[in-house]
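Bug #77: duplicate submission created two jobs. Keeping one. Sequence:
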Amino acid sequence: MSFFDPPDEYNETLKSHVFPADWTNPVPDGKYNLVVIGGGTAGLICASGAAGLGGKVALIERSALGGDCLNVGCVPSKALIRTARAAHEARTAGERFGVRTGEVKVDFPAVMERMRRLRAGISPADSARRYSEELGVDVYLGEGRFTSPDRVEVDGRALRFARAVIATGARAARIPIPGLWESGALSNESVFSLTELPKRLAVIGAGPIGCELAQAFARFGTEVTLLDNVKPILNREDPEAAAIVESALEADGVTIKYEYEITRVEERGQDKVIFLDKGGAQEELVVDEILVGVGRAPNVDGLGLDEAGVEFTKHGVVTNDCLQTSNKRIFAAGDISLKFKFTHTADASARIVLQNALFYGRKKLSALTIPWCTYTDPEIGHVGLSPREAEQQGIEIETFTQELAHVDRAILDGETEGFVKVHVKKGTPEIVGATVVAAHAGDLIGELSLAMTNGIGLNKIASTIHCYPTQAEAIKRVGDAYNRTRLTPFVAKLFKKLMAWQRR
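Kept job's structure:
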């Protein structure tokens, strides 16, 4: 199943932009300042940035420009998540707001058509013709492979370069369960091609992808079972945050099975049967579809990295802190080399590469402050260190928390499940980490990321006027809580004496 399926007008439009069938590759003419292999977020940023600075740039893509984000990641998944939230809001409007809507029905084919229409509408920004005709990039569609430390071959053409960037990203990991893939299991690369709503869906993996899509399909009306061999869900997140999301998933009808080993998968007629083992107890789970959301695997195969003298492992291309590979001419950006595989980190790493590759800069990946968000409902936004990580680094912290249940706008919105939690270095206002659980945590975490990036302390956030009523006021209240700790018993005693003197 291709992500260009089904072949309707929207997918045909998408294909015409990101991998046009009538495309003719250019003929190389001299050495390139920069050759970019991979046309996802990182590759596109590198190519457009270098071309905008006057460089002669080649961009190579073998599958579809826009990469995972546009085609099988952020864009389609968030389109489905928004529709799922709308369905949930409609179903609960009576209880929460006194708005009676009657029976809510989800038209799944229409939901998927909307997703394809929106994806196609966004795709011109990543199109081959835009990059070629507007930005001046030589776009090559096909397999790119290093043939020497300073050459790449594509479509039988040799491209010489002064610098190159590997930005080939990652793909869904194929976990080795007997019969799983033979049964037609879905990944993020195929699930968005569905045209019929599965009645029963098993989701393997309780990380961000698994939790987001499990909740979305449950809200569409699918009977969803979420499977993971460890407990709890979202184990990279704050435990309190993960617990709130777990409760939300269960409230939406998701059945969560922890600490189960999947021994094999078999087809039984139209059904898919998952054989489970938990401590020797056997169980069968019968479903219509299986979605695998377990990790990512780097796209290193077929690149000729050995010929280029580029070191790599099963985790991806090896780089230093400046994103330079073992071949000093070649850099890497995005999911192919980063621990944090997010679109925004791919973007940020590409900007580092541009400075370091073209202008001999020394920008470091380790200097970045990286937030992330899991787009369940409620969302979890995080930036910086967790308490455990702070302890491992020998950093003493103080934590300040504001529950959304006590924030007026959250109460009025009916979105009281969640909190803002900020960790500061003990005895200082310096923010070292934060977690936000809220309906729009991804939007709220940006303020705390800005503060950390620019050395703005929690005391300064407290002195910043926030609009009332907003859920962002929760962040200001955390700052207020910090400021109250500055009122030591000694200072409080002095203030009390001052007030008494003023009353004379």
